[in-house]
Amino acid sequence: MIVHQDLYTFVRDIFLAMGCPENDATLAADVLVSADLRGIDSHGVARLSGYVRLMDLGRLNPKPTIRMVHETPSTAVIDGDAGLGLVVAPKAMGIAMEKADKVGTGWVAVRNSNHFGIAAYHASLALKNDMIGWSMTHAGPLVTPTFSKERLLGTNPICVAMPAQEEPPFVLDMATTTAAYGKLEILQRKNLETPTGWVQDAEGNPTTDANAVRKGGALLPLGGDREHGSHKGYGLGAMVDLFSGVLSGANYGPWVPPFATAGFMSADEGVGIGTGHFLGAMRVDAFRPADEFKKHMDQWIRRFRSAEGLKGEQVLIPGDPERWMEAKRKEEGIPVLAPVIADLKTLGERFHVKFPNE
Prior knowledge:
Layout: H1 4-17, H2 22-37, H3 48-56, E1 67-71, E2 75-79, H4 85-103, E3 105-113, H5 119-124, E4 131-137, E5 158-162, E6 170-174, H6 181-190, E7 199-200, E8 206-207, E9 218-219, H7 230-246, E10 275-283, H8 290-305, H9 320-332, H10 338-351
Parallel strand pairs: 2-3
Antiparallel strand pairs: 1-2, 3-10, 4-5, 4-10, 5-6, 7-8, 7-9
Helix pairs in contact: 1-2
């Protein structure tokens, strides 16, 4: 176990050593460690070496000049200058909230960015302002459309965060695949198989091989197969790609550049610029009084949480498991797998940053 504050300091210092400005390094570290705190280990510090490799490949600019390339009172398009998505996305959400504050809603499409961590971080920024936050991003092609063997989409997550009054907020953060690729990486490190319905092999056959995607197979859309609704997961993933890529001017579909940890992947970029995101903020009182809305959110949450569970199971509200995990890990520390620790120590040696004691 590693104390989360110590892990945060280490990650921040690595970003500083990469050349990131202090404010950007602080923000990027907060986004990454928040993923580990929430139990989303696939998108936390295990990703740090990937950002370093992106920089080494010339695909990441540690000191970007983020600029607005198009704007209306309620919308904007942002060029991230190949910066850390961990930094570009929160800044874009800030612009969305400024617009929502003025006209009720704000929507920002982002191009020329990179992997932005967990979608929940960015969407949840709106909560403190009594706003509903939206966050989505596409990613490198690992996912096959229903009835295909080709990898054309990313895991393409969607997050919606809605404030409540006395209850914790509703935070839905989900990939549009049955599982995110980072979960495969965790299984690979543990030499475990995947559950059925996560992946198919290079010939399109179902498999539980956690390395299937590396061998030419593909992740499956949410649902797994047509009989279980994979066409719906495919449709959701396509929607995220269109908002994040086609609308923003980023690359899209099979042309989205892969994250650096996926060394087996390649994408023939050129239809757009870099990776794209889409973020939004909606002022609650643009629809109804905020206190009235949050009171009814409390009632909605309590009613669903009190639903009779099957076989002693408790009905959860989106955001519950992550909130519970965050409280646990703040008290007990963050468990980091041995291969990840070894990877982080290697980074520490390169950048002369001491890795914290376990």
